[in-house]
Task: inverse folding
C-alpha cells in the first residue's frame, strides 16, 4: 500500500469531509434515530410519542409471528446465497473454458445484471401468472399446481427463484474475473501435477478464488437480507396475508402500513445488530483461512 | 528415464498460423537438449506440445516406447519448470513440492521423505513451512525445481526457467541445474532464448527459427560449424562476422584482392569468421580500421570496418590496440562459407 504524504493536517480531513458527510447524513444519523425511536411508542397520527423503554423489544422477542418471519428469512438467505453463488461459480467455470464466441456468451450471461429488483419481481409475476405464466405451465406439467400469492410455499419458491436469477450475473462477473486472474501457468502446473479436473478445481482453483468468494458471500448475504425488498414487494403486492415475508419487508409493513414506528424501529435495530454480528463472525472465522496474493 | 522421439511434429493454430513446421528429432536417454531461438521461433510451442499443454496438430510424439499424443499431461511422466515458477501461492513450500506426489496416491510418509530429500538437495530445508510469497526469486526457482525433481519423472521440461532471475543468480542456477541433471540423469528439454545458457548447459543444441530447425548439433559444432548465417549470427556474443566476398580461382577474396582461404566454385559467397579467429599484427596481410575498442577486462573487442563491412575482432587483454588503421590476418581453418542467396553453409 502506498502512503501519501500531506504537508498540512487539515487537507486530508478536508478531502475526507464529503465522504464523511454522506456517511453521517445517510447512515449514522438515521441509525441513531432508529435506535432512539425504538424506545418510544409513536402516535400513529404524529401527535407525540411516549417513552416505553424496552417494550418494543420484549414484544418482538415474544412475538410468534416475528420468530416465524425470522426463520423464513434465515432459510431464504441461505437458499438465495447458496444457489446464486453456486450457479454463478458453475457458469463462470464453464464460461472460462469457452474459447469461440466467448464475448457474446459472457455478455448474454451478464444481461440480467441490468434489471432492477422490482422489474425482476414483475418479470417473476408474469412468469408465474396464474392463468398463462410459462413457469406455472411448466410446474403444472410436473403435476405441481403452482399458485403464486396464494400458497405460501409457492410464493417462497418464486421469491427464491427470482432473487437467485437476479443475483447470479453479479456473482458470475466477479467469479469469472477471479478465474481469469489466476495465472495460466499455475493452472498448467496443476495440469501436470494432477490428472483429475475435479481435484484440480478444489485444490488449486477454488483456494485461489476464495478472496473473491468471501467478498461475494458477504455481498450476497446482504443482498438476500436487504436488496431483495423490491422483489418481495412486487411478488406479495403489499398484501402479506398468508405470504412469507423477509425481516426487511416486515420493517416496512409495520412502519409504513401499520404506522407502528417504534416497533418498526426496534426491528431495524435488531436487523442492524444481526448484520453487524454476522460480518464480524465472517471476518473472524472465514477470512483467516483465505490466502490473498 | 526415457528416450523421446518427435516424428513430423507440426503445430497449426485454428487461424492458420503455422507455429511449428513438421520437424523430427530424437533425444537419447539422459541427454540434455536445449531448444534455442529468437522469440516467436516456436520453441515454447514445441515444448508445450511435448508437455501436453498444446495439442499436436500432426505427427507423433513418444516418450519411452509409449505414444503420448493423446495422453494427459499428468500421465506423461514429465515434470515442467515454468518461466515464472508457477508455484501454488496458497500452499507452503512443502505442499508445493509434494502436491504432484499426493495426487499419485503415494503414502504420506513416503511423500514426506521425498520432500525432505529434495529440499535438502536444493537447500530449502528451513523454508518448508513458508509460502512462495515469502521467498526470494532464487528460492522460488529452487522450489519449482524441487517440485520437478521430487516426482522422479522420465523427462524434465524447462521453459526459460532462468529468465526472471538477475544475472548473478542466473549464472549460479545455470550451474546448479546442470549439475542436478547430471546427477539424476533424467532426460531434459530446456527452452531458452539465451545462447549462453544453450552453449553452457546443452549436450546437444537445436536452433529453431520461425518454426523450422536450423541446426542440430553439439555446442562446439553449432559454434564452430554453423549450418546457416542465421545460426552464425544468433550463437555467440559477439556473433560470427559475416563478410560478403568472392570466390576467384579457388580462393576466397575480400575486396577484390586479398585471398584469405581456399574454396571451390566461383562467384559471390558469404564468409563467416569468429571474432577470436582473427589475429592482429604489423606483419599481417589484410588492412583493417579500428573504430572503437571495447574494454572487457579479460579481453578486448575491436569494432571496425573490413572492406567497408562491419567486423569485430576479439583479442586478449595482453594485446594493445587503439583506434586507427592496423593489419590483421584470418585463420583459414576457421572460415565458414555460406551461399549468399540462401544463407546455407556450403
Result:
Amino acid at each position: 500500500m502506498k502512503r501519501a504524504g500531506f504537508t498540512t493536517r487539515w487537507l486530508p480531513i478536508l478531502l475526507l469531509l464529503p465522504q464523511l458527510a454522506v456517511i453521517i447524513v445517510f447512515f449514522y444519523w438515521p441509525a441513531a434515530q432508529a435506535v432512539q425511536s425504538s424506545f418510544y411508542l409513536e402516535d400513529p397520527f404524529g401527535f407525540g410519542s411516549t417513552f416505553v423503554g424496552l417494550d418494543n423489544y420484549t414484544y418482538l422477542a415474544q412475538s410468534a409471528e416475528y420468530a416465524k418471519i425470522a426463520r423464513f428469512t434465515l432459510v431464504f438467505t441461505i437458499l438465495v446465497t447458496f444457489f446464486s453463488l453456486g450457479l454463478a461459480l458453475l457458469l463462470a467455470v464453464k464460461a472460462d473454458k469457452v474459447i469461440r464466441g466467448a464475448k457474446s456468451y459472457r455478455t448474454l450471461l451478464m444481461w440480467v445484471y441490468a434489471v432492477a429488483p422490482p422489474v425482476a419481481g414483475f418479470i417473476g409475476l408474469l412468469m408465474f401468472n396464474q392463468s398463462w405464466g410459462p413457469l406455472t405451465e411448466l410446474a403444472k406439467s410436473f403435476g405441481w399446481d403452482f399458485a403464486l400469492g396464494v400458497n405460501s410455499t409457492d410464493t417462497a419458491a418464486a421469491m427464491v427463484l427470482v432473487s437467485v436469477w437476479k443475483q447470479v450475473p453479479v456473482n458470475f462477473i466477479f467469479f469469472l474475473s477471479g478465474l481469469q486472474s489466476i495465472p495460466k501457468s499455475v493452472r498448467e502446473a496443476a495440469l501436470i501435477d494432477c490428472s483429475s479436473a475435479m481435484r484440480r478445481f478444489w485444490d488449486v482453483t477454488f483456494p485461489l478464488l476464495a478472496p473473491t468468494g468471501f467478498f461475494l458471500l458477504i455481498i450476497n448475504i446482504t443482498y438476500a437480507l436487504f436488496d431483495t425488498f423490491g422483489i418481495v414487494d412486487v411478488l406479495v403486492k403489499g398484501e402479506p396475508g398468508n405470504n412469507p415475508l423477509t425481516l426487511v419487508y416486515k420493517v416496512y409493513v409495520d412502519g409504513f402500513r401499520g404506522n407502528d414506528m417504534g416497533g418498526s424501529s426496534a426491528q431495524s435495530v435488531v436487523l442492524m445488530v444481526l448484520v453487524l454480528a454476522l460480518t464480524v463472525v465472517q471476518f473472524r472465522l472465514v477470512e483467516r483461512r483465505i490466502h490473498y496474493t | 528415464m526415457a528416450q523421446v522421439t518427435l516424428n513430423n511434429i507440426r503445430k497449426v493454430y485454428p487461424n492458420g498460423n503455422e507455429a511449428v513446421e513438421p520437424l523430427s528429432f530424437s533425444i537419447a536417454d539422459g541427454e540434455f537438449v536445449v531448444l534455442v531461438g529468437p522469440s516467436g521461433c516456436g520453441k515454447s510451442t514445441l515444448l508445450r506440445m511435448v508437455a501436453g499443454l498444446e495439442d499436436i496438430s500432426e505427427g507423433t510424439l513418444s516418450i519411452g516406447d509409449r505414444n503420448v499424443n493423446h495422453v494427459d499431461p499428468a500421465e506423461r511422466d514429465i515434470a515442467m519448470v515454468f518461466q515464472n515458477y508457477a508455484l501454488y501461492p496458497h500452499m507452503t513450500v512443502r505442499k508445493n513440492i509434494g502436491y504432484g506426489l499426493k495426487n499419485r496416491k503415494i503414502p504420506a510418509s513416503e511423500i514426506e521423505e521425498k520432500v525432505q530429500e529434495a529440499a535438502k538437495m536444493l537447500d530449502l530445508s528451513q523454508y518448508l513451512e513458508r509460502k512462495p510469497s515469502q521467498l526470494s526469486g532464487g528460492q522460488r526457482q529452487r522450489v519449482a525445481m524441487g517440485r520437478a525433481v521430487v516426482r522422479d519423472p522420465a523427462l524434465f521440461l524447462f521453459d526459460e526457467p532462468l529468465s526472471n532471475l538477475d544475472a548473478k543468480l542466473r549464472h549460479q542456477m545455470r550451474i546448479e541445474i546442470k549439475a542436478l541433471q547430471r546427477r539424476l540423469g533424467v532426460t531434459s528439454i530446456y527452452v531458452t532464448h539465451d545462447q549462453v545458457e544453450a552453449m553452457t548447459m546443452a549436450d546437444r543444441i537445436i536452433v529453431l527459427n520461425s518454426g523450422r530447425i536450423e541446426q542440430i548439433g553439439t555446442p562446439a559444432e553449432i559454434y564452430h560449424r554453423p549450418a546457416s548465417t542465421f545460426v552464425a549470427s544468433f550463437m555467440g556474443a559477439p556473433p560470427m562476422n559475416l563478410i560478403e566476398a568472392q570466390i576467384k580461382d579457388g580462393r576466397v577474396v575480400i575486396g577484390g584482392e586479398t585471398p584469405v582461404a581456399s574454396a571451390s566454385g566461383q562467384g559471390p559467397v558469404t564468409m563467416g569468421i569468429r571474432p577470436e579467429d582473427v589475429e592482429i599484427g604489423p606483419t599481417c596481410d589484410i588492412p583493417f580500421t579500428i573504430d572503437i575498442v571495447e574494454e572487457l577486462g579479460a579481453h578486448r573487442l575491436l569494432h571496425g570496418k573490413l572492406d567497408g563491412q562491419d567486423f569485430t575482432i576479439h583479442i586478449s587483454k595482453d594485446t594493445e590496440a587503439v583506434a586507427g588503421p592496423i593489419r590483421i590476418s584470418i585463420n583459414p581453418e576457421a572460415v565458414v562459407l555460406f551461399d549468399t542467396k540462401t544463407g546455407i553453409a556450403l
Notes: The radius of gyration of chain B is 24 Å. The mean pLDDT of chain B is 91.
